[in-house]
Amino acid sequence: MISRSELQKIGQLRDPNGQLLSLYLPLFQESSNVDYNIELKNLLRSANQRYVDSTGTSLPEGFDALFEDLRVYVRDNAGKYGRGIALFASPEYGILRTLAMPGSVESSAIVAENPNLAPLIRLLEDNQPYCLCVVSRDQARLFLGHVDEIEEIEQVRDEEVPGQHDQGGWSQARFERHIEDHVHRHFKNVANRLFELLDEQRFEILILGGPEEVVAGFEDGLHPYVRERLIGSVRLLLEANVNQAREQALSVIAQNVRSRKQEAIQRVVSEAGARDLGVEGLTETMAALQRGQILNLVVDSQVHSSGINCPDCGGLSLTPDQDNTCPYCQSANVQDIENIVPRLITTAFEQGASVYVIDDEEQKADVSRIGGIGALLRFRVDEQTA
Ligand SMILES: [Zn+2]
Predict the structure, then answer these.
(1) What is the whole-number distance in angstroms between the Cα of residue 312 and the centre of ligand 1?
(2) pLDDT 10s digits, 216-251
(3) Would the pTM count as exceeding 0.90?
(4) Rounded to whole angstroms, how far apart are CA atoms 136 and 237?
(5) For the chain, what are the domain ranges?
(6) d(Cα 60, Cα 133) in Å, to the nearest integer?
């Protein structure tokens, strides 16, 4: 499971020679004996072309041996990596880090000083690990899920809830109170379990399932930390099978992701429009990135632009200064980058920003009003002092 802290750790990988390879390869588990050689060769070729474009020289010879290692590694281990593999390696250090991609990924290979985390960031932001808790007055089922994997981790049952035949000599009122005590204790028990799971970082978002009135009663007793993770509830029966559980959970999550993105877009559009805590378009967004101002980055998945990278100060810019120098430190050492957007996404994430990559056609239309990209800022910089 990919976590923010894990990604930040990968973000610190560096190759002193500027030869860190970030490779993403989709895998096809359902068909056996897929040969990934051709795809890997194509990726090597495109990585080399990008490297030539940016540095003027071909990838060093060490990459041939590295790619042979990768070929063997993928051949022998593809089965362990779900729907795709993310791999970071360099000729000097070999394979540094591999990760399973739980969701679909586009193949890409980039060689640079820093890792390209953009595809992982996107997956992380759209797929937080979730807990689905289906609850009744005397039972509960707990599921943990991530992307399209789901697992039932436990069932909780209050064995002592009295049935109607237990009423015996009790008055109706007293008997009902007795049952309510049991229900209350059962809810508390399940709520505590959810708190433990949250504390163990087993989920980020919570979905409740069950009859409306039961869910409402249960929700009231949740720990505030757990309740703030709640994104919605579904009318799921306790007898539901795991596929129904997953389907319902994923539909709540998809809606939640969509509305979070919508809110982020609207906030950027209005703040940028008011020239307040927002910027729009690539030029302004790059400037905000350079100042470490970005809180939320909103970007159409298809936005694409060349740019430059300065290995001396780490600066990113759309264009160099007039004499082909770095606009920030005036170094003459600048490198061309075919597409600067993955760098922008990675750097914004490393600065602690939330990244919203927009795929939905309607939302893309909204983002097009700000030139396909924009950001909500942490703080404002007055034009005069910037
Ligand atoms: Zn520089």
Answers:
(1) 5
(2) 999 999 999 999 999 999 999 999 999 999 999 999
(3) no
(4) 9
(5) 1-116, 127-240
(6) 53
